Amino acid sequence: MLDELDKGIIRLLQRNARAPNTEVARALGVTEATIRNRVSRLLDEGLIEIVAVVDPKATEATISAFLVLNVQPPGVEGVAEALRDRPEIRYLSLVIGRGQIVAEAFFRDHEHVLAFQNEHLAKFPSITGVEISIVVRVCKLSYEWEI
To answer: CA torsion, points 123, 125, 129, 134, in degrees to nearest 10?
Structure first.
């Protein structure tokens, strides 16, 4: 469970993950060693990650798309496992709703989208339907969680 100091550290790191421990310590009124130990524990326990997030604009991926896949129940796990290894897929989840799998994928161009659908998704007989929604504008993108 996170205590108030952990939450304070996380809030500051969400604003600037590169903030020095001394700066975080000063802002929270504790020692640098306390911050260093707490951040190490949060990382070790998998409660936080400090990563560089690449904007897709910095890559060849010019098209973002959300895929909703209808999959016959015996094949859901196998399709998800195969999609997990595809470089286009950035987010993958099993859901209850309109489909059984939802994914976010990035593609170079429309031909890449078409090839992914016709060459990769078509391999799976258990996929009975595919809905692809192309993102035309991102209105909000946030990695911050209220804690």
So the answer is: -10
Do the beta carbons of residue 80 and residue 126 sit within 8 Å?
Answer: no
What string of DSSP letters covers 78-108? HHHHHHHT-TTEEEEEE-SSS-SEEEEEEES
pTM, entire model? 0.77
Instruction: Tell me the two tokens of residue 45.
Output: 């326990």
For 61, the 3-state DSSP assignment is: coil
pLDDT tens column, 25-83: 999 999 999 999 999 999 999 999 988 877 777 888 889 999 999 999 899 999 999 99
3-state secondary structure of 58: helix
